[in-house]
Design a protein that fits this description.
- There is one protein chain.
- This protein is α+β, with helices and mostly antiparallel strands and about 600 residues long.
- The strands form five sheets. The chain has an eight-stranded mixed β-sheet, covered by helices on one side. A five-stranded mixed β-sheet has the order 9-10-13-11-12. Strands 16-17-18-22 form a four-stranded antiparallel β-sheet.
- The termini are far apart.
- About 10% of the residues have low confidence.
- It binds adenosine-5'-diphosphate and magnesium ion.
- Adenosine-5'-diphosphate (ADP) binds next to helix 2 and helix 3.
Length: about 600
């Protein structure tokens, strides 16, 4: 094909793709515009997860009559004039792309009136072209309505998830901005139902209550000392850190509860999330994450926000300094305010019911009888013979089928996390959690394939009032959840009733001390984490999530008997060497390796 310039509407749609990925991106851009316009109130309304309609209204400064049409031109902005302004951006928008991009992939209506103008302007934009403009009575401020998003971009439309899921993403966007701007009153209405509202009274803590509820908000600690201490060395710019973090007793199965803002811009930054998580080092169980809302304030020249079209990522001039400031501020807060951390070591029996146990017990008694003694009355002389008999009896119990781990002898436990064992080829270190996950996973998958998964009915059904994101995840997986042993049914508009859970969860004592509701939330969070499009593997993922929740945790003391049992069960697995998520269950140190390390040869 010869080189040709793309027709403007095609070029427009391609450029739009960078800014507008999904309905939540539209909401983000419109809300940012309202904030930049100095609004004290921002109302967001969506229908069908935003695909049918998104409307964002504000009481900000409005757009003057002679500029409304220009606002839809690409690279049209009132926020930048020359390139030097890029170094110190104090508005959320600056690229002048959002309205143009949104208009390229939807039908847009805009109604706007600056306070000092008598009438507002009403504008209709289709396929990026202004098709109508007229004066119209209007309250001061701006209302942008976006309809039929992506109707003219079928490729995009295909990738949209269910309306509930998209609504969940929009909910996150709106609540995040409410956190960053406690002085602005936000509301979100989804399919004519008010799902979120902040008061706009300026108190971050009140926004946290509106989002997470009072129970949870009470477990949050306010970050102390806004970094005016050691961070403010003459040569370094100050990084002020504020916000709230969870006490170590409150933790989540995924990282999306770490929310970060730089100069009140919501950003995603793995390194800073990591800085927050690191501050909890040694305080949280393995694989759990804190909940945190962390706001950084710094000189705008120290941060480049023009890295990505969606402005989601930023680049710091001195990343290490920022990382350190966050980590120290969070750590200080935890150390000074948090109650002594305890890694819940509730006694619980987590052993998988062993189908061989009964038979083994019977044979053990046979062996004892063969030794001519009962267990209590035996003397040392008989012990050797007894041991021989026992070994023989147990030998007969070897499972049929492939044994891909050698027979191991348990030596002990290290750090309440690893089981040390000895085998014919040296030493083996077994991760108790990963190993147990594998054991449970194979068992549950086998039951599932035979349609024999059993459920445990709860004494009282639990009502699940979920945030829109999780309720979206649940809605999407409802059928699968019910197939793997949960009994869930819709209960009102966004609630569900949980009547039963897979027996494997009940049998493992995962229930001790935590209720079915918490378990359910953990599992939904695990599902939400991976955006795995492989529908046919959805149930396997679900089963893996259930087993992860049910498995014995790191940090739990195991008896010799429990360790032996776990190792036996692992030996019987089809793929004993990795957990269902692919992490190793066993590390092997060969006898040769050990000899070499000790300089024996
Ligand atoms: P940017 O925000 O990067 O400037 P946009 O395409 O989002 O680009 O908006 C273009 C311009 O339209 C803005 O610079 C602003 O002047 C105006 N505008 C958009 N939304 C609003 C609003 N809600 N209130 C006032 N002005 C607005
Ligand atoms: Mg903008």
């Amino acid at each position: 094909m010869p080189i040709r310039l793309l027709p403007p509407d095609v070029a427009g749609k391609i450029a739009a793709g960078e800014v507008v990925e999904r309905p939540a991106s539209v909401v983000k851009e419109l809300v940012e515009n309202s904030i930049d316009a100095g609004a004290a109130e921002v109302r967001v309304e969506i229908r069908e997860g935003g695909q049918r309609l998104i409307r964002v209204g504000d009481n900000g400064r409005g757009i003057p009559e002679d500029e409304v049409a220009l606002a839809f031109a690409r690279h049209a902005t009132s926020k930048l004039t020359d390139v030097s302004d890029l170094d110190q951006i104090e508005t959320l928008g600056f690229r002048g792309e959002a309205l143009a991009s949104i208009a390229a992939v939807s039908q847009v209506t805009l109604l706007s009136r600056p306070r000092e103008q008598a009438v507002g302007q009403h504008l209709r934009v289709e396929g990026g072209q202004v098709v109508r403009q007229e004066g119209r009575g209007s309250p001061a401020g701006t209302v942008v309505t976006v309809e039929h998003l992506f109707r003219n971009v079928p490729a995009r439309l295909k990738f949209l998830r269910q309306p509930q899921t998209e609504a969940g993403h929009i909910h996150s966007i709106v609540t995040n901005y409410a956190l960053a701007y406690p002085g602005i009153r936000f509301s979100l209405t989804s399919d004519e139902r008010l799902v979120f509202q902040s008061s706009g009274n300026g108190q971050l803590y009140d926004v946290l209550i509106a989002i997470y509820g009072l129970d949870l908000a009470e477990q949050l600690l306010e970050i102390e000392g806004a970094g005016n201490g050691q961070e403010t060395e003459a040569s370094h710019p100050a990084v002020a850190v504020s916000g709230f973090v969870s006490t170590p007793a409150l933790h989540r199965a995924n990282r999306r509860y770490i929310t970060l803002f730089v100069n009140r811009r919501w950003i995603q930054d793995n390194s800073l999330s990591h800085a927050v998580a690191q501050a909890y080092h040694g305080m949280l169980p393995v694989g759990r994450h804190p909940l945190a809302v962390v706001l950084l304030d710094m000189d705008p020249t120290e941060v480049d926000v023009n890295v990505h079209p969606t402005k989601r990522e930023v680049r710091f001039r001195n990343g290490r300094l920022v990382f350190g400031a966050v980590q120290r501020a969070v750590r200080r807060t935890l150390v000074e305010q948090a109650p002594v951390p305890s890694l819940g070591q509730r006694p619980q029996s987590w052993i998988v019911p062993d189908q061989f146990a009964a038979a083994r017990d019977w044979q053990r008694r046979q062996a004892l009888m063969a030794a001519g003694r009962d267990a209590a009355g035996r003397d040392a002389a008989d012990d050797a013979q007894l041991a021989l008999e026992l070994r023989r009896a147990q030998g007969e119990l070897q499972p049929v089928g492939p044994v891909r781990l050698p027979l191991l002898r348990v030596v002990g436990q290290v750090g309440q996390t690893y089981v040390v064992a000895e085998g014919p080829q040296g030493m083996y270190l077994i991760d108790q959690h990963a190993a147990h996950e594998r054991v449970l996973y194979e068992r549950m998958l086998a039951d599932h394939n035979e349609q024999e998964v059993t459920s445990q009915t709860l004494l009282e059904p639990a009502t699940l009032d979920l945030d829109p994101m999780l309720s979206g995840v649940l809605g999407e997986h409802l059928a699968s959840l019910n197939r793997v042993g949960f009994a869930l049914e819709p209960f009102g508009r966004s609630s569900y009733l949980l009547r039963a859970i897979p027996s494997i969860l009940a049998a493992q004592g995962a229930m001790a001390g935590s209720d079915a509701r918490e378990i359910m939330v953990d599992i939904l969070e695990m599902l939400q984490q991976g955006d795995d499009p492989l529908a046919d593997r959805a149930e396997e993922r679900l089963i893996a999530a259930v087993c992860k929740r049910a498995a014995v945790k790191a940090g739990q003391t195991l008896s010799a008997e429990e360790m032996q049992q776990l190792v036996r069960q692992l030996e019987q697995c089809e793929s004993p060497r990795t957990c269902p998520h692919g992490r190793p269950t066993v590390l092997h140190f060969s006898a040769q390796q050990l000899e070499k390390e000790f300089g024996r040869r």
